[in-house]
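Most newcomers find our protein records easier to grasp once they have seen one. To make this concrete, we reproduce a full record directly below:

…
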Amino acid sequence: MKYLKKFEKIENKPQVGDYVIMNTGDDEIRNFLSTNIGEITAIDNMTTIITVRYMNVPKKYTLSYNFYKNMKQKFIQDEWLRDFSIKLIAHHSKNIKDLEEIIIVNNL
């Protein structure tokens, strides 16, 4: 008699070190976030908040954004660390090349 394997729910959750393209409501910052790839540096599973690092960010984006309550940001030299709700992830992948292709296709 053969045995059936039990159903396993495979979740494709983002993890620390994954690359992301974020989606947010503000038009000015949405343009930047949808065309730049960030890297997840921390995940708070209790609050579903992720910290994303962007490199070489123009200061106008880090200073002009109207931040949500309880969301933090840090701007150190050319590195921008920003907290987002995990629900704002448009795409994520362990491979940065996958996200680069998505950006190219979306900008055609």
